Amino acid sequence: MRWRSGSATAVRVHAGYRVAVLAITSIYLLQECVYAYQERNDMTKLSRVMFLLLCHITSIAKQIVFHTDADRIHDMIQSLNDPIYNASSAYAQSLLQRTARGARLLLGAYAGCAVLTCMLWLLFLVMHRIAGRSVEFPFWTGFQTDRPIVFVLVLLYSFYVTTLVGIANTTMDALMATILYQCQTQLRILRNDFQSLPEEAKKVSDRTGASYEAVLMYFLVKGFNHYKRVTETAKLLQDITGVTILVQFGIGGWILCMAAYKLVSLNILSIEFTSMTLFILCILTELFLYCYYGNELTVESDRIVCSVYSMQWVRTPPRFRRAVVLLMQFMRRPLRPAAGRVIPLSLDTFLKILKSSYTFYAVLRQTNK
Predict the structure, then answer these.
(1) Residue 292: what pLDDT?
(2) Which residues of the chain have a pLDDT value below 70?
(3) Per residue in 274-299, pLDDT tens?
(4) Kindly report the CA angle at 360 between 356 and 366, in degrees rounded to 5?
(5) Which of 304, 311, 335, 356 has its CA 20 to 30 A from that of 219?
């Protein structure tokens, strides 16, 4: 009973924390909107705030989804602990361990890059202040920041919110990418299982004395259920996050455009230039993760029918061969994750976003000459 009470308390505290984070991010976004409206005629100042403003919009969109669909997201993550996703073979364990290491490395490097960017922004503002230069924050505060105590408070507030958004964005992105990565890994395990199915069935039949045909059908049904679970997980992920990824793709090009517009006006040896370069790297990573892992999932899904066909089915019983044909018919349509069921998660989409971003940038530079 104590454990249940403590768990319920932790759930309520975490829910309250999510609401607080969403509220703080939304307030900061409103402050950025006010600043952007006030400086709408100054392209230099407007570009300074727009890339962050747009980035915060995508963060809020993801936070809303993670808040409203928290139960389904939790169930999806917990489902990865099911035995069907954790095969005991050496090949499967090797792939699962590599996937786990890759996910940890991805999250650490991605979130670390975001935090480092925010720290460099903080350092840049502090150095400007120490040098006696005027510091203007890219959001509306309603206060004069000339006084040291006000400057410190506003600086800490800005650093807290930007770092919070950076960590939130990278964590949510890494989670969605890891689910796609896990689905890809499961299909690779399944492909290996199908290719070696008759041989494994023969070994089990000889060892246990069970009917060879019965063991064959058991493994085939097990593989079918495994594939079905993977498709259900991929579909659930798309249902939950499809709209947010669509928003990310729609705004991502503008974020890169505004960040690049700001970058070209900076001294290449300055801290601000380094921080902007890291920011652009974070946005590129954010877009690339979805496109790369979505593309890899599609590729693995395309290959699975070939893996089923390449098994040694020629000398298997007729009943099993008929079942194999039905299975291949069921798997003929590959998994194609998409943003909002409209834009496919593929490397081609990533290149199109980069091209559109460059187009926006070229038009913006041309109109402001």
Answers:
(1) 95
(2) 1-6, 368-369
(3) 988 999 999 999 999 999 999 999 99
(4) 140
(5) 335
Contact 293, 177 (CB under 8 A): yes
Do the Cβ atoms of 306 and 144 come closer than 8 Å? no
Which residues is 344 bridged to in the sheet? 338
In whole angstroms, what is the distance from residue 13 CA to residue 8 CA?
9
Angle at 121 between CA 115 and CA 127, to 5 degrees: 135
Tens of pLDDT, residues 256-277? 888 888 888 788 888 888 988 9
Place of tokens 């099911």: 82
- Please name every residue paired with 339 in a beta bridge, in sequence order, or none if there are none: 343
3-state secondary structure of 344: strand
Please report the pLDDT score of residue 60 as a whole number. 92
79 in Cβ contact with 233 (< 8 Å): yes
The stretches of the chain forming alpha helices (DSSP H) are 2-38, 43-68, 70-79, 90-130, 148-195, 197-208, 212-263, 271-309, 318-330, 347-367
d(CA 287, CA 169): 12
Instruction: Burial-class residue 139 by CB neighbours within 10 Å (0-12, 13-18, 19+).
Output: buried
Burial call 303-341: b when 16+ CB within 10 Å, e when fewer: ebbebbeebebeebeeebeebbeebeeebeeebbbbbee
DSSP of 30-42, one letter per residue? HHHHHHHHHTTT-
Burial 170-201 (b: 16+ CB within 10 A, else e): bbbbbbbbbbbbbbbbbbbbbbbbbbbbbeeb
pLDDT at 368: 64
Phi/psi of residue 367, nearest 5 degrees = -75, -15
pTM score:
0.89
**Backbone torsions φ then ψ of 315, nearest 5 degrees:** -100, 15
Residue 369 is predicted with a pLDDT of: 59
